[in-house]
């Protein structure tokens, strides 16, 4: 309306739904680098009158690394969350490396992605799902055995 155009609020909502994933994909690699100390927590929030678990991981400087909305709060949801966080970190690191070395992202994805990018320490609350999820990821080789769970 500032520019003399009448745009319906549903049009703006559709633009957001269409373009935000692309903006997120392009901007995330350029955000500040993170460190290897993660803090993980979950909480319940109400979305459309339904209680949903919000998982979130931040580094020790408070930078949000990843989040996940899940209908359940169990070991499978925690494992899904950690996989999403590790894959997100691997994608942003491979994108940064490809820009630095002039390689394509697809050629960098053939190298084992997460072992160099895994956190050194993961701080969690007393949710019993986290130790099981971390143990499963270590057994699958997605996390290094040296990752400390506090």
In brief, what are we looking at here?
The protein is α/β, with parallel strands linked by helices and 150 residues long. Helix content is 41%, strand content 22%.
Notable features of this structure?
single chain; 150 residues; alpha/beta; Nucleotidyltransferase, domain 5; five-stranded mixed beta sheet; 5 strands; 41% helix; globular
Structure description:
This protein has a single domain (9-149), classed as Nucleotidyltransferase, domain 5, CATH 3.30.420. 41% of the residues lie in helices and 22% in strands. The model is unreliable at 103-116 (pLDDT under 50). The chain is an alpha/beta fold and 150 residues long. The chain contains four helices and five strands; from the N terminus they run αβββααβαβ. A hairpin with a 4-residue loop joins β2 and β3 (64-70). The chain is globular. The longest helix is centred in the middle third of the chain and has 27 residues, at 75-101. The protein has helices at 9-27, 75-101, 105-108, 129-140; strands at 37-47, 50-59, 64-70, 121-123, 148-149. α2 (75-101) packs across α4 (129-140). It has a five-stranded mixed β-sheet with strand order 3-2-1-4-5, covered by helices on one side.
Give the arrangement of secondary structure elements:
Blueprint (H helix, E strand, L loop, with lengths): L8 H19 L9 E11 L2 E10 L4 E7 L4 H27 L3 H4 L12 E3 L5 H12 L7 E2 L1
What is the approximate shape? globular
Which structural class fits the helix and strand makeup?
alpha/beta
Strand content: 15-25%
Q: Segments where pLDDT lies below 50 for 5+ residues? A: 103-116
Spatial strand arrangement across the major sheet = 3-2-1-4-5
Helix-strand pattern? HEEEHHEHE
What is the top-level CATH class? Alpha Beta
Topology, number of strands = 5
User: How much helical structure, as a percent, in the residues?
Assistant: 40-55%
Specify the biggest β-sheet. Answer: 5 strands, mixed
Nearest-angstrom radius of gyration? 18 Å
Number of distinct helices: 4
- Determine the N-to-C terminus distance: 52 Å
Number of domains: 1
> Would you identify the CATH architecture?
2-Layer Sandwich
CATH topology: Nucleotidyltransferase, domain 5
